[in-house]
Amino acid sequence: MGKGGKPDGGDGFEEASRDGCEQENMAAWLLGVNTLKIQPFKLPNLGPRDVLIRLKAVGICGSDVHHFKNMRCADFVVKEPMVIGHECAGFVEEVGSEVKHLVPGDRVAVEPGINCKRCELCKQGRYNLCPEMKFFGSPPTHGCLTNQVVHPGDLCFKLPNNVSLEEGAMCEPLSVGVHACRRANVGPETNVLVMGAGPIGLVTLLAARAFEAPRIVVADVNDHRLSVAKALGAHEIVKVSTNIEEVAEEIVKIKEAMGTRVDVSFDCAGFNKTMTTALSATGSGGKVCLVGMGQRELTLPLTSAAAREVDVIGIFRYKNTWPLCLELLRSSKVDVKPLITHRFGFSQKEVEKAFETSASGGNAIKVMFNL
């Protein structure tokens, strides 16, 4: 789990031991398709720059569900038992000798990826693209759906007094929206289209509002999620279908809803149809940012987009977003609480039910564990 945990020898499920003191750390292990089991998990020794965190809030992400249902997400394949999860916050229980900004008892949000800090991409500041990244719950790195983690202190951010642990865990998905808006240079003169009103589409909507986009239109196939988008501040919503033959008429509806040119489109679903719609709806000279990864490969009308100088950009995770996310939450410029629709405890039965709830869709947006 990043640095935060390691399996034992043999079957990997022995009781945890740290610094000669026996204690049991339980984690949700992904053992096979649709198979999760709470088992003991061993923590590594606390290094001088590490902190020990007792986790209290852990969210389920779409990538967790992909791993649960398919044992893979895009090109990340689960090949052996793995602890799942990467959205988390909790209490600091112990700090290493070189950690000065945190003390036991602090509440922290945890950035889940540990980069190497040595490669060219890290040195350029684009550490989210580090080829040696160890990211919670991304094979082969263990995740954070567990009682405790050991993690680098510089990736743990103290929560403002008015920000809850659940909101702290929501910094991870919110970071995706913030990074996307930064990549696309969203600002007060940028009219935004968001394709997809799932959790990532909704946090992208919230980020675009915080970045002062003057007009935001959200399109989706689901009436309930569109109603949530409207409640969260979308200026207009557009119901679309999954039929690619309907792209042309849906673009007309999107442009009517926008009432002006689309400067930036975010595809937060990642399918041929959503990306085709985004490319065609975006005005000449605008940008399309691919955020979602619904399909491993896309077939797109790039020639016509290129002829209008529509820039296509991608994002992968995020970089340097936690301080801004926490400030947006502290100042109430962003409210992620309405996104948390379901809560579960950390028992075998509730872990299974939580993943079933998240995978089934329906009215579930963000499913959160309270450990």
UniProtKB/TrEMBL annotation:
PROSITE patterns: ADH_ZINC (PS00059). Its cofactor is Zn(2+). Belongs to the zinc-containing alcohol dehydrogenase family. GO terms for molecular function: oxidoreductase activity, acting on the CH-OH group of donors, NAD or NADP as acceptor; zinc ion binding. PANTHER family: SORBITOL DEHYDROGENASE (PTHR43161:SF9). Residues 32-369 form the Enoyl reductase (ER) domain. This is Enoyl reductase (ER) domain-containing protein. The lineage of its organism: Eukaryota, Viridiplantae, Streptophyta, Embryophyta, Tracheophyta. It comes from the Eukaryota. It holds the Pfam family ADH_zinc_N.
